[in-house]
Amino acid sequence: MARHVNGSSPREVAIKFYRNSDPDTIARIKREFEALRDVRHPCIPRVYGNGIGWYRDGGPDPVPYIVMEYAGAKTLADRIARERCIPVDQALKIAAQVADALDACHARGVVHRDVKPLNIRISHSDRGSDRAMLVDFGIVRKHDLRITIHGNILGTAYYMSPEQVKDEMLDGKSDQYSLAISLWEMLTGRVTFEGKTAWEVMYKHVHDPPGPLKIPTLSYDDPRYAKIDSALRKALSKDREARFSSCTEFIRAASGAVPPSQKSTVEVCAASGLLPGPYCRERRSVPADEAPRLTCTVCGPKPPVTVEVEVCRASNLLPGLHCKREKRRFPEDKVPTKVCDRCERPTPPVVRIKLCEKTGMKAGWGCRTKVVQEFPRDKVPPPCRECKFPWWLPALAAVGPVMVLLIAIAAILSGSGVPVEFDVKPSDAKIEWRKLDDSRWRVAKNNREVRVPEGQYKVKISARGYETKVFTENVTGPKDHAHAQGVHMISATLKPDLASRLLGQSQKAVESGDIAGGVARLNQAVNWIRAHGIYDPQALATTRRCLLNEARYQLKQGLYLQAAQLYEVLWNSQDVVPDAQSKRQCVYAFRAADCYYERAKEVLRHNADVSGPGAKALRQADSWAQQAKNTGADPNAVEKLRKKIRHQGEFYFDSRILDRWGFIRGQ
Prior knowledge:
Blueprint: E1 2-6, E2 9-17, H1 23-38, E3 47-53, E4 63-69, E5 74-75, H2 76-83, H3 88-107, E6 110-111, E7 120-124, E8 130-134, E9 141-142, H4 162-165, H5 172-188, H6 198-207, H7 223-235, H8 247-255, E10 265-269, E11 283-287, E12 306-312, E13 325-331, E14 350-356, E15 370-376, H9 392-413, E16 418-425, E17 430-435, E18 442-443, E19 449-452, E20 455-462, E21 469-475, E22 488-493, H10 498-511, H11 515-532, H12 537-556, H13 560-572, H14 585-604, H15 613-630, H16 635-652, H17 655-661
Parallel strand pairs: 16-22
Antiparallel strand pairs: 1-2, 2-4, 3-4, 5-7, 6-9, 7-8, 10-11, 12-13, 14-15, 16-19, 17-18, 17-20, 20-21
């Protein structure tokens, strides 16, 4: 400290010497001098000059120094060490002065970066009150000066902000974080984060939340405690965007001095005093700090009056002449009044006809140039009568008897062998045979008889709706056969294939609108297939495709219960499908869970009974979600759906009921 005399008004100044004169120290002195020269504030010491001189210990080389206003010898750290904790009013007063000084620095684009009790000095003013002075701007940084080298972290570990630890670009909110830790230490006598090493403390600044605030001079019931705790935790947010816009605003929130214009209000339901729900009509405003946390469930819509109307399945309008009809329920004020005009009369089948290019009629034998064109079956043109027969037709008529004779000789020559007759039930069964060393199957003549040489043959008998039978038969000659006429007889009776009939009945029932009947027939067919292992793959695939289209249509129309039942049937019948569609088992389980969830959400709005259909659908939704997860569905999608299911359960039912169900908690 020294006394500087300028005319008749002496003043006390402080001369700050730096023992090193390397380029980094010179740059640090220059930054501190420029920062203090640009800022004018009662809580920031003024600077009068800088230079290079000799320190009083008589060093060999001159060292740099700065001449500034004397800020006092006592620091805030000395007072905290002496008193352990500072009273709340005095701590907030000191923090307010430092916050005002920091805002003045930030307005000039200056960031202190080392705000801590050791750099806050307490000086005695002429008016008899103490004044906090912010000193040591040695590691200050201006926004427009890029002199900080990334990788050199400057500051004190206990008071560093997360962005300062990660060596990011800093702004005024970094000083706000350090000021919050200093205020925490003034109130409690301890810093926010402690550790054995500096790296442990810096790690906690980035990752750990602050612990509970324990103020010895303030009880938890005091209204000021909640305001100070809320303000400190907001200022100590890891994300700088979540902090206050300025240091002054932070201290104002901690002391409770919020301007009336900034006090927010919240709308509540006028009837219940809770947060308004979707059906609350009258509302009123209350202060934000008095706002309730629960949402109003008292106000609700009146159950609508519904009417059952027969409508078109495709357009949801009144049915026309060619519409597929279905009975549905509508609110009384939303009954359709228009008649469907989208469904058209089914077009007749189209056939491909060869036309004579000359006349445009159906081509005959004499038409050489022909054009293929499609026509409806009822509008096929008549045959052409103008073109003559070709010249080679009479020659073919002359050769005809010769060809007949050759065919008769071939039939006689092929008649050698053992005659074989078949006695097969049902009568319309298809009979095929081949030699054991041949891979080509041949069809029996008239599907009942064949003449083959002696030997062993493979016989296959098949019929639609019956079990295919394949066996080996040893055909012998007349001398070895017991039949009087030397004919080898083969008898076989096929077992009926019940699954094919049931699948056909299921498909017809679904197409006619009888979903329950179609589902029942498909379940019977699947059970029969599992028991006997016999079925028509094409019929099963067609029936499953029909049920899948119906499930999508029901889901589009909002009939979630019917859609869920269809997806259940598809899932149950998946294990008998041998092709790649078996991989979609998890998809059907997930869609069934989603449909049951939508059904539960729809029913619980009007009936939240524990034994009602809404609670049953909610339990089924969770069960199918677990089934989808076990069969390989997307884990993220399943977990998202289960969270929605748990949210519905917690909203409508008590926790004891949920524990008894066992699908909400512990999973």
